[in-house]
Specification:
The protein has a 4-stranded parallel β-sheet with strand order 1-2-3-4. The protein has 4 helices and 4 strands. The longest helix has 15 residues. α3 runs parallel beside α4. It is 33% helix and 17% strand. It has a domain of 36 residues.
């Protein structure tokens, strides 16, 4: 197996049956896997030789718990780089009344801590 890029949340509910997924699956060196991303751990990431990740997380009330666990697994697995999709910049903050804005703020604050220094990341937000 060669190093791989993990894309999380790109297809939503349709998964690999979506026309876009089927088109991608025909490309050389592309494999479409369906997996509950909230169950991904460091061992699975290492077994798949994941070096880069793109995540478009859900925005449910338990987002912080599940997404932060993924980021810890990325760090433990030695993933080199990831990009996460956030929300509108004006929603991101610790006192925003919109819960998912606070969740995105909490995730980005977590990732800014020295313990996550080995993990390179970027945020895509509007």
């Amino acid at each position: 197996m060669s190093p791989s890029i993990l894309v999380i949340g790109a297809t939503g509910n349709p998964g690999k049956s979506a026309p876009a997924s089927q088109k991608l699956a025909k490309l050389p060196h592309v494999e479409i896997l369906e997996k509950d991303w909230t169950a991904i751990d460091a061992a699975w990431l290492r077994s798949q030789e994941v070096t880069r990740v793109y995540i478009a997380p859900h925005n449910l009330p338990h987002q912080f718990v599940e997404e932060s666990a993924l980021h810890v697994a990325l760090l433990q697995a030695g993933v080199m780089y990831f990009v996460r999709v956030s929300t509108n910049v004006e929603y991101i903050g610790p006192t925003n009344p919109v819960f998912y804005g606070r969740s995105h703020w909490a995730i980005e604050n977590l990732l800014s801590q020295p313990a996550f220094g080995a993990l390179q990341w970027d945020v895509a937000s509007a």
